[in-house]
Amino acid sequence: MIDAADGNGSGPAPPGLGQLEQSLAMAADLRGMTEALVRASTWIGLVGWTMMLFQADGTHLFPCGMAGLGGRWQPPLQPLSTRDAWPVSQAAIGQERAGCGTTGPYPLPTKAGTAAWMVLPLAKRQGVAVALRPGVTAFHPVEQDFLREAVSLLDRYLPGVERTGRSAEPAPRLTPRSAGVFRLDLADERVECDEVFARQHALPRPGRYPLTDILCRIPAQDLPRIEEILGELRARPGSFEVSYRLTLDSGGMRHLRANCTSSRSEDGAVRDIAGEVTDVTTEAQQIGERETLLRDQLRRADRMISLAASAASASGTDELAAAACEALAVFGADALVIVEAHNDRTRVVTAAGYDGEHRAVLDGLSLSARTPLTDALRNQQAVFAPSHRDLVSAYPHYAATLPRLKRHAWAAIPLPLADATTPAVCMFSFNRTHAFHPSDQPLLIAGAALLGRALERCRAYDTEHERAVRLQRSLLPAHLPQHPGLLLTASYQPAAPQAHAGGDWYDAFPLPDGRIALTIGDVEGHHTEAAALMGRLRTTLRAYAALTPDPATVLARTNNLLTADNDADPDHALLATCCLIALDPETGFLDCATAAHPAPLIHTPDDAPVPPFPTGLPLGAFADTPYPTTRLILPAGSRLLLYTDGFTDTPYTDPEHAREQLRHILAATESELGADALHEVATACLTSLRPSDDSALLLAHLTGREPGDRPG
Question: Using CA atoms, how far apart are residues 145 and 98, in angstroms rounded to an integer?
């Protein structure tokens, strides 16, 4: 983690640079890069761009990418010598040029008109970039500074695009060829060779050598195949081409290609093999580089596909950050934090891989502080710190805090958001130094672009989830009834953000006949409507229970009411399950009716078996549905657990097995009371850190009276 440090930040960067860097990083070709430059330059007028790159001879420039230039302002599509007096020729050797007038930076038609232009050399002698604005107003100093910054960003990403872009078809060419001549006598397995062959195979001089002097330089992993090839050459005459490798004293590898012909003796056997050998090491290396580049492109594409899929499916900012860390872990990124500007300070939106202490360090930093994170947020430009040394070089005040830093490299990248008034940045942290190769920087910036697009949607998920959970908690009872012979404890656990909130509820309230009503239920769906219906059902059950304390009658009337609502508005119809119990704490008698809800679990002091509970249809399915009643008497010390299916109907879990586990845990907590027992049950059963469904528990403990007689 990079700690805060006070200091004055630099002024705001010229407009467009943050978005320009993201566009350059994701550009697929040179035209895409020049189009990105045109978009970023709109704040200074109608500016066109062209890139003129060196040809293979290093003495001529050729326009390779153009955008925003009308026909009369485009450079001629022909090589332009660096020996000419044009500004682009002078800039090609490192001299920045700027001007305004009828004479352009390169040959233009006579009637092209007046234009302001600036020519900037590209790094590593790649060529020049030209910005041209028609009109009589020259680029003033602030605009020139912007153009320099833009070309500096272009320099950073141009090598990657040039390497990955499609190359032109090769032109005819003449290449000197040096071949070594040899003859292999199969009778004594000795090789006779000339000077070139000897030099290729690290032999002292031309002459005659045992075949083993050559085979000893064949890599061990190649020897079996070489022996097979020699066997084939001995077995049949003809002309062949053989490619093989030799190890060098320097530790390198030489690639050779032999074109050879085997000849027969009078008896038909192969007598010798003669031919010539060409060194193809450079060609093999180029092929290897292309294969490495292709693998790197495939790896980048795979990471982007993975991140795009994760970002699209993430439901909440925490899940989004975790998905980004997982997708980019292949590059060593093991932590990520997303921060936004709020009242001239940083505010952490979400983080993954950071503990609370390090997350707090980044929350509330002054935007004027000199840190990679605040610089990227303030200037809207990516900041890369590949190592502690690079960090201290750019931010000397970190020298004293290096021992406390847990990470070794950082990349702070602006997020493109629709709401530009609240800028945001994501910072990737690495558990080791990271070189940030040309292929890595575009990947991380492209990843930040995906995160930016997904962030606003995930914030909406977070807001909806928080609102639904807040609504649901507000509809649950604030207090449970107190009774001398009964201890009641309840618990509610919301679902993970991707599931929004559900409709699970519990309730307990006195009945007119002195008994206590215990109820638990679940409305289908995971949204605010489910939570709202849960509140209505809880109120409805209380109202009907005030008229009649019989659980079956209360469920039947509630079912008729919900069924009528569903029939009136079928597009928004919802079903619900419910278990309603009327319990007499003094006698231990209870009546229980259920509407498609899991039956309560009961544990008695003697662990006596409990008869099964018959159940009825869900509430809201059909009108006039009857609900059977189960009547029991429980001894003192018995415990009654009402629960929702969030504890049993979980992914990759058999519901019956989960129910048995719940029963065993209830029995194992026999010596514990109230909240302790309930906490142990919930902790043991809700093993997932991100439950897909909400869940509720209601535990009733008959604490101390003798059982009475069964009522008539």
Answer: 12
